[in-house]
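The protein record quoted in full:

***
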Amino acid sequence: MSDEHLGDEIHDLLDNRLSPAKSALAMAHLDACEECRTRWDELRAARDALKTSDAGIDLTFAQQLLDRDRMAQIASGEPRHLARAARPRDRRMSVAAVAVIAVLGVLVVSGYLAGAPDEVSLEFAESDYDGEPALLALNAQHMRTGDQLRSWVHPDWEETGLKPVNAKVLRASNGENILVASMLSGLDPMIITERHGRLSASISDYYVSVDLGHGQAYLVSDQPRQLVWQTGDVVISVTCSCPLTTLEAAASTFPAHDDPTFIDRVLDGLSDIADATTPGA
């Protein structure tokens, strides 16, 4: 025992490991030393809490022991490498990481919503586009190469025997681009109209469906006959004053595309947002 304080012997006293003579001296010291008495009372309280708590640990007392200020005070007399554990963790990096994740989340959601396709009504295929100025005009040769129709859907002209005639891309009043093209199936002329977007799901409630082999089309008009269907993110209309079997055969030659993935929509949406916010766009 030191002359000033009990030191580690206070634990031996608490555990009854001191001789009767040393225990008497220690108890006399506790009566005279307020600091050792306070430490003795805390240790006894902790011992009693462990014995009486249902969970084996008194959470209130444990919180006191884990209090940062108290740990820092205790650690102030320890070597630096030990005292480091008592300092509060620097949470600036954690806050920055959460902020970055939050911003990315907002961007992804905004991109997905902006990239979601608009609902396409049947009016896009019923309008008369004759005389409308074209953003892009293509002849039969251009249509065969397909280089300028990559974002649109068209049949394989060589394999199907269908003959392209001409095509043009127009800007609709709502700002959307529309493809209007013509082709021949044998001697029967056909008009193709396409627009990017999503065909209304309610169309199945009003029109007869036709199986194209790779999806369902809907017969929305009988004079002239007109089939409308969805493939990927494109809505297609093919119109012809010909037998329905001829129209179905021609429509079935158009390839089926998968729906855009989540990533595709996010990227498309972010691209649209960037275009809208770019000066002069």
